[in-house]
Automatic annotation (TrEMBL), chains A, B:
Its cofactor is Mg(2+). It catalyses: enolpyruvoyl-2-diphospho-5'-guanosine + 7,8-didemethyl-8-hydroxy-5-deazariboflavin = dehydro coenzyme F420-0 + GMP + H(+). It comes from Streptomyces glomeratus. This is Phosphoenolpyruvate transferase. Pfam families: CofD. The gene is cofD.
Length: 319, 319
C-alpha cells in the first residue's frame, strides 16, 4: 500500500509513528511543510522536516515533541553572551549540527529535497520524507503590534509571541511561485490513499496545499483522501490552531475544519468521540465522517487512529 | 607605554597575560596571525585570534591552551554521525558560537578586523587585538604523502598529521597580495617597543611578517624590537616549531632563530638560561642578547619574562 501523508510538525510526526506501526509494510511518502522554515544565525532551519525526521528516527525530545533528546544549549548561551539573538528560538547543540550540514549542502548547490534525503540517510525514518517544495516559502502572519500593523515570520508569531495577539492574516509568502519538490506530484499520483494527520490545517497542511499543483494532484488522484481533526472539543489538541483558523475565518471546531478543506478535496474525516455531534454536519457537506478517539496519548492509541483512518479510506473506496 | 606584540596562538597568548601583569597601564596592541585560519563546516575559524581572545578574556581551557573552558562537543559528535568531517579539528559547542557570529558578520560585509573588535567587546581582553590583515592568507605546507607531493592546509599538517612528515616548504598563500589590517601600521609607527613573544617564528610571527609593509614598518619604527626564544635547549618549548624551521632551512636553536629574524629587524633577544652559550653567537650577529628563565610555568614566571623583555628593550634604547 502506498500512502501519502501531508505533515506539519509534532502532530504529523506522532501520527506517522502510529501509521508505521499500523501498516509496517506500507510505502509511506511524507510531504513536509517548509513554510515555517527560518534562517537563524546564518543557518537554514526546517523545524517541521526535522521534527518528522527526529521523531521517526528516534532522536526526538519525547516530552517536548521537538528538538533533540539529551540536548544541551551551550552554543545558544554563548550566542546570547555575544548579544546575538533571537533568544526566543531554542536551538540546541545537537540540533545545530543538522542546520550546519543542511546550510553547507544548500550552499554547495544541492536542493532542499536532496539535502533532506542526505540527512535522512542518517536518521532512517522509515518513510520517504520530501519537502513540499525546493523553493523558499515563508509563512508570514499579519498582526497589530504596538499600534502598528505588520507582517512577521510565523515562528516569531508562534514561538516569540505564543500567538498572544490576533492573527489578521496568514500568508505563505512565495507559495504562488513555488514548484512542488521532485517526487511530490509523482507520489500523490501513485498513492493508494492520502492522509491529513491532525496537523494545523492553516499553517501546516494549508501551506502545503498552497503550493500550486499539490491540491490539484490530490483532488485528481482518484484515491481516498482522509483527514483526522486536530480540533477536539472545539479546541486544538495542542498548539494554537484556533488563532490561525480565526485569521482565515474558520471557527475552531472539527466540523468547520472539514468544511474548510471541502468535499472537493476531502473524502473522509475523523472527529473525536466528544465531537460525535459533528458527524452529521460533516456528512451533510459531502464528507464521510466517523467519531473515534483522537487523543495521541501513546503509541497504541495513535496506532488505532491510523487504523481508523485507513478503514475509513477503504470505506470511501468501496462506496 | 605603547607596546606592539606579534602573536600566534598559545605561546603568544600566555606571554600576553604576563605582559599585562608586568605593565598593567600599558597600551598593548596585538597583531594576530591569521594564516592558520580555516573554513570548517561553512564557518570561518581563526584559531590564533581566538586563543588570544579567550586566554586574555578568561574563557580559555587552561590545561589545553586552546578552546573554551567548560566545553562540550555534542555538535561535533552529531556532525560525525552525519559523516561530516573533518573529525580531527576539535570544535566545541561553546567555541562554535564564536565562529557562527564571525561568519555571519563577515557574510554581512564586515571586515575581519571589525568582527574581531565586536567579538572582543564581549571578551574584553584588555589589549587591542588586530588581525594582521583583513585579506585571506592561508598557510599551506608542502609535504610528501603516499608518495605524492602536495600542499595541505597548515591545520591539516599540524593537527591531523601532528607534523609527523617533513615539511618541505611553508607558504603563506595570499600573503603577497594582502594588506595590513586597518590600524596595524599605525600601531607599529606609534609604538614605544615591539615584542615577539615565544611564538612559532615561521608559521606565527613569520606569517605576520610576510604581509607586505609589516616587516618594513617594524624595521623603520626606530624603537626597540625584542623577541623571546620559543626554542629552549634546542627544542620547541611546546608545539613542533622544529618541523617548520627545518622547512625554511633554520636549525632548531635559540641562536639560529634570532639570526633568522636578523639584526635588520631584531634589536634584542632573550634565550633561556640553559642556552646561555648562545648569547655570544647572537650578539655576534648584532643582536643584544640575555639569558633568563623562559619557561612560562605560571603567571609569575611569565610576568618576569615580560619584565626581562622590557628591560632589554630599555637597554637597547639607551645604547
Amino acid at each position: 500500500m502506498r500512502i501519502v501523508v501531508l505533515a506539519g510538525g509534532i502532530g504529523g510526526a506522532r501520527f506517522l509513528r502510529g501509521l508505521k506501526r499500523a501498516v509496517p509494510d506500507a510505502d509511506i511518502t511524507v510531504i513536509g511543510n517548509t513554510g515555517d522554515d527560518i534562517h537563524l544565525f546564518g543557518l537554514k532551519v526546517c523545524p517541521d522536516l526535522d521534527t518528522v525526521m527526529y521523531t521517526l528516527g528516534g532522536g526526538i525530545n519525547e516530552e517536548q515533541g521537538w528538538g533533540r533528546a539529551d540536548e544541551t544549549f551551550h552554543l545558544k548561551e554563548e550566542l546570547s553572551a555575544y548579544g546575538v539573538g533571537p533568544e526566543w528560538f531554542g536551538l540546541g547543540d545537537r540540533d545545530f549540527a543538522t542546520h550546519i550540514v543542511r546550510t553547507q549542502m544548500l550552499g554547495a548547490g544541492y536542493p532542499l529535497s536532496a539535502v533532506t534525503e542526505a540527512l535522512c540517510d542518517r536518521w532512517k525514518p522509515g518513510v520517504r520524507l520530501l519537502p513540499m517544495s525546493d523553493d523558499r516559502v515563508e509563512t508570514h502572519v499579519a498582526v497589530e503590534l504596538d499600534g502598528e500593523r505588520k507582517a512577521i515570520h510565523f515562528q516569531e508569531y508562534w514561538v516569540r509571541l505564543r500567538a498572544s495577539v490576533p492573527a489578521e492574516a496568514v500568508v505563505p509568502v512565495g507559495a504562488e511561485q513555488a514548484k512542488p519538490a521532485p517526487g511530490v506530484l509523482e507520489a500523490i499520483a501513485g498513492a493508494d490513499v492520502v492522509l491529513f494527520p491532525p496537523s494545523n490545517p492553516v499553517v501546516s497542511v494549508g501551506t502545503i496545499l498552497a503550493v500550486p499543483g499539490i491540491r490539484e494532484a490530490i483532488a485528481d488522484a482518484g484515491v481516498p483522501v482522509v483527514g483526522l481533526s486536530p480540533i477536539v472539543g472545539d479546541a486544538p489538541v495542542r498548539g494554537m490552531a484556533d488563532k490561525v483558523l480565526a485569521a482565515v475565518g474558520v471557527e475552531s471546531t472539527a466540523a468547520a475544519v472539514a468544511e474548510h478543506y471541502g468535499s472537493g478535496l476531502l473524502d473522509g474525516w475523523l472527529v473525536d468521540t466528544v465531537d460525535a455531534a459533528a458527524v452529521e454536519r460533516v456528512e451533510a457537506a459531502g464528507i464521510r465522517c466517523r467519531a473515534v478517539p483522537l487523543m495521541m496519548t501513546d503509541l497504541e492509541a495513535t496506532t488505532r487512529m491510523a487504523r481508523e483512518a485507513l478503514a475509513l479510506a477503504e470505506e470511501v473506496r468501496g462506496a
